Amino acid sequence: MKLSIEQQPTQEGAYPQGEGNIEKNSDFEITGDFQRFNACNDIFARAQWDPRIHTAKAMNWFYSMLGLKVKYKSTDGYTQKDYALRNAGWVVANLMMERSAHLNRHDGFLDDIRGYMKEDGNKVPVASEEEISLQIKKAGKLFGADIVGITKIDLRWHYTHKFDAKTLSEKPNELSEELTNCIVIGTSMEYDVVQTYPSALAGTAPALGYSRDVFILQSLSQFIRNMGYKAVSSLNDSAQAIPYAIQAGLAEYGRNGLAITKDYGPRVRFGKIFTNLPLLHDVPQKFGVKEFCEICSKCADACPAKAIPFGMPTDQTHNQSNIKGIKKWTVDGEKCFSIWANQGTECGICVRVCPYNKSNDTWKDRAYFRFFRWLASTRGKRLALWLDDFLGFGVRKAPHLWWKEKEIKY
Ligand code: SF4
Ligand code: SF4
Prior knowledge:
34% of the residues lie in helices and 12% in strands.
């Protein structure tokens, strides 16, 4: 049935506590009224069916990713050249999404990414879960992932329903019971492009992240199928990436509602592969993000939408676009998306200003990042925060300067 304000997405009742390891060594606190999330409540789905979000500006934001109805400006960072680069970054992800349009699917965004070839009829024997896990991580990095982690399937993070963009209704989100493990891959977004947030130029970073993820996911999942096991690739569809990234030991959770990774901070895009390949599970890693976020509010201070909370984590939600029953910092997606729709491209300020967003291009960058992480995890965290301001981190780079730089880093 078509969704509307009267015909709201289905909400499940309380969901039993899973057996995932997120509680064991992370700061996610699942409360008794936890409910799995319905993807129809995702702000990008609501922008299509919910008249409170579905505005001409919101739709133009979608169209602009496909190079349609783009409103070029003379403002630095929003020119035709800036959008030209951003939309070129989207090409591979868009191709993957559009190839299934005749099946009423949006692979990678609303539906899992259909595999290229089926699994081989013959299974490569797995003598050691430890060894095959290492080989999967090696293959993931070979295909281009910056970080790879492994955890077990935890249905709490899987959507109760998917969104059908053609009929503006919900549809089942099914996962074969055979699939027991989840491989999480992360690709970093270029530091110097992220520094130009907010701008259309900066939008190239996530666009490229999605396109790279599609390539890596499809290659790695095909590697698993070629070994005779099942593997389903998932980008933004099917399940929430952030709790899976935390469970797979790749990140901690930050005030800005993002997964903060050790080596790339918040500038990482994640993808997942659900598989029945026997694998060894990683455990959540802590390196002091929550404690640092407690004394830092740079993202909340800088957010133009006032969408990021101050204070300590709570289980308060802002609207139906938030998952219920987790004590954490929760971002108001409605407020955030209104900024994106108004400016015609992503905002991303909360990524740029985060002190964990540091370059690791050179050995000096990496050495300072290591020093910052260490200091931020000690009683000197206020000094780390002060140093961040003193040294000028997080300041926006004018997009035209990025275009003018002679050095090519990539
Ligand atoms: S993307 Fe911008 S508007 Fe959205 S939460 Fe981050 S800083 Fe706020
Ligand atoms: S800007 Fe500060 S408070 Fe926000 S996520 Fe980063 S470290 Fe945490």
